[in-house]
Write a structure and sequence with these properties.
There is one protein chain. By secondary structure, this protein is mainly β. It contains six helices and 38 strands.
């Protein structure tokens, strides 16, 4: 622990030293004072609410921050705050962690709720670890990260937290056109055109890729309309995205990411991922407190599973529609009540097919046949009702609470023969095929999720303590994409109960916050050593998060945050032959820190950012370790005129050799997605 604190102290000291260089310069932008910063959030209750009045831990990223990063991957934005650790894989791929380890496995993505304007990107039971690239985060007006179990207003999915992308085509922002260029052929063109009622935005990106055969083409477009009809405010939103990506695989070998030439290589030049998505929604706000949000969604993805023997192609697709209904009733000046009903229907399909014989050992060739492995459809229906209330005890204290009752039904249809046979019904050698297809079935899950919290709020201080429950339903891939001898996946929803506490205060030129949490998670779904999906895992998660923002001079601000966490195994459901109870969960650094010094004067903004990742274990036995890293970034903005701005960024300023993601496999040992070397990007933005 001493080593960790010394390392982060060095980061903060570096930021302060950088800040002191400008200590005698005059301040020109008074709006940056801590006490003048206005923060609101809509995610918690679907209505705009003051941040201090909510018993939830929420990080907010505004359009200015997103723009300063010159974001080409959402990880660059979200990893700047305490408690968030997103691994950037190849191209636009990612793995999420919010007050959690980096969770892996077919359905682990179900532990995080990803949304656009409060509507989930994907339906219940059909998460994808990369689904955030289907959002238009590059031009978001704001991104909110909710930390901890789901609130009453959102059900299955937000077990560890959620991410809400807000207003990707905003009427309130100035219209602009922006061009960005960077190394390895990176180019992006984006624009926003709007008036008081309509807004249209688009982003077109090309990346040649630092690694061999690892580039991508990506296009995103959003449209928004605001109108009023007979006292009803209506917001209509459309988003469409398309990605064509060449995918790079892991490089293998202990510390192989430190070899710059090896880091450029791609062991899987044949790999690819093509994905497209379309979403449309309307929100009707009635003046009596009623809110109705109908929506429809579509996604289609095809990719080569280069990471498994046989390298089959997966094609998955869904159509879905639903409606969120909520009535906000202000009973008195002290009491408000929200009552709601959410309904969602989805048609989900998945096809896995291998077009040539498997290469490798006799066992692999016999048990992994060419042809179809899986071909199924699931009709999913989710119905949930909820009630939440907020009661003001006095002018400083209030109590919040509520409960959500949710039922999820899956109607599964197997379009192939069932069991451990190949596409033609032939048995495989060595005891049977790797792939096991269940018979047609109907599965349902019903669960109640309560919460209660106490909130304290006054002019310069706010705090809360919150006891909550979260859950996630088994994903369709965990139920119907079985292996080996498993014929039925009898799974229960994952559940997590715990307590959060927070205290924040603004004093003169400084704002700070302290947050703590402790969660116990049960029915953890995982694939055990027999390749069976089971739901009898137990884990424990606890942590402390510190954040600070302070004006050192009128021109210089320092921001810093530190998160200390322990994520441990509470039992061993046939995950290892060794005793792992009490061990750190894989891919869960104990310490994550960020520090930034920002200098701002008329026409110029300059910042240096440091990001620290502690060492962490790569396997349940805690015998394999990634050593961690510290990476610095330099960012600048020059306002050449009231309409014209120039951005120049240098990511990985000191050309650190590090891994974006480290992993361990019993077949290959340590393996990595290498981080980019020093990377320079420049943008020109013109506002109309």
């Amino acid at each position: 622990m001493t080593k960790h604190l010394k390392t982060f102290s060095l980061l903060v000291s570096s930021a302060l030293i950088y800040a002191s260089v400008f200590c005698n310069l005059a301040f020109s932008k008074e709006s940056n004072k801590a006490e003048d910063i206005e923060k609101i959030v809509v995610t918690n209750s679907r209505y705009a609410t003051e941040l201090g009045a909510i018993s939830r831990s929420i990080n907010i990223y505004d359009a200015t921050l997103i723009e300063q990063v010159q974001v080409d991957h959402i990880q660059q934005v979200l990893n700047q705050q305490a408690g968030v650790f997103i691994n950037r894989n190849s191209g636009q791929e990612m793995l999420l962690a919010i007050r959690s380890p980096v969770l892996t496995g077919a359905g682990a993505c179900g532990s995080f709720l990803t949304m656009e304007n409060g509507v989930p990107l994907r339906p219940t039971g059909f998460c994808n670890v990369n689904e955030l690239f289907e959002s238009h985060y590059e031009l978001a007006e704001r991104i909110e990260v909710i930390k901890g179990p789901s609130s009453v207003f959102y059900g299955s999915g937000g077990l560890h937290g959620g991410i809400n992308i807000i207003n990707t085509a905003a009427q309130s922002r100035s219209p602009f056109i922006k061009g960005t260029v960077g190394q390895w052929g990176y180019q992006q063109l984006s624009f926003l055109a709007n008036n008081d009622l309509n807004a249209l935005s688009a982003s077109i990106s090309h990346d040649g890729g630092y690694r061999d055969e690892s580039g991508f083409e990506q296009q995103k477009i959003s449209f928004s309309n605001l109108t009023e009809y007979q006292g009803v405010d209506i917001q209509s939103t459309i988003t469409a995205t398309n990605l064509n990506q060449e995918t790079a695989g892991y490089i293998v070998g202990k510390n192989s990411y430190k070899d710059r030439e090896l880091s450029k290589s791609n062991p899987n030049p044949e790999a690819y991922r093509d994905a497209k998505a379309f979403r449309i929604s309307q929100r009707y706000d009635f003046n009596n407190g009623l809110m109705i949000t109908p929506f429809a969604r579509y996604s289609d993805m095809e990719f080569l599973q280069h990471f498994v023997p046989g390298k089959p192609v997966e094609k998955n697709q869904h159509y879905s529609f639903g409606v969120q209904n909520q009535y906000h009733w202000i009973y008195s000046s002290n009491l408000s009540v929200d009552v709601g009903l959410d309904i969602e229907f989805a048609n989900i399909s998945l096809l896995e097919e291998q077009d040539k014989p498997t290469e490798g050992s006799a066992f692999l060739m016999a048990t992994i046949p060419e042809g179809k492995h899986y071909d199924y459809q699931v009709d999913a229906l989710t119905v949930a009702g909820f009630v939440g209330a907020n009661y003001a005890l006095n002018d400083k204290f209030s109590v919040t609470g509520g409960v959500r009752l949710e039922r999820i039904d899956y109607d599964y249809t197997n379009k192939m023969n069932a069991g451990r046979v190949d596409e033609d019904g032939n048995e495989c050698g060595f005891g049977g095929c790797r792939f096991s297809r269940p018979e047609n079935s109907d599965d349902n899950f019903t669960i109640a999720s309560p919460k209660i919290g106490l909130v304290y709020q006054e002019q310069n201080s706010a705090g809360f303590i919150n006891v909550s429950h979260g859950f996630r339903a088994p994903q369709t891939t965990e139920l119907y994409r079985l292996q080996r001898e498993q014929q039925v996946s009898d799974l229960a929803p994952e559940e997590m109960v715990g307590i959060d506490a927070s205290w924040s205060q603004t004093h003169d030129q400084m704002t700070y916050s302290i947050q703590a949490y402790w969660y116990e998670k049960s029915n953890v779904i995982l694939r055990d050593n027999d390749y069976f999906y089971v739901s009898d895992g137990e884990t424990e998660h606890k942590g402390l998060e510190l954040s600070l923002s302070s004006l050192i001079t009128n021109n210089v601000r320092v921001d810093a945050n530190l998160a200390y966490a322990r994520h441990i195994y509470a039992n061993n459901p046939n995950l290892s032959v060794e005793n792992i109870v009490g061990n750190d969960i894989s891919n869960a650094p104990n310490l994550i820190g960020n520090a930034a010094a920002i200098y701002q004067t008329e026409g110029l903004e300059l910042s240096i950012n440091a990001q620290y990742i502690d060492d962490y274990y790569l396997n349940p036995e805690n015998t394999s370790t990634y050593e961690g890293h510290t990476v610095f970034h330099l960012r600048s903005k020059i306002e050449a005129s009231p309409n014209l701005s120039l951005f120049i960024n240098i990511d990985n300023l000191f050309d650190k050799k590090y891994a974006e993601r480290a992993n361990y496999s019993s077949f290959t040992g340590e393996r990595y997605f290498p981080g980019l070397p020093r990377n320079i990007k420049a943008s020109v933005k013109y506002e109309f």
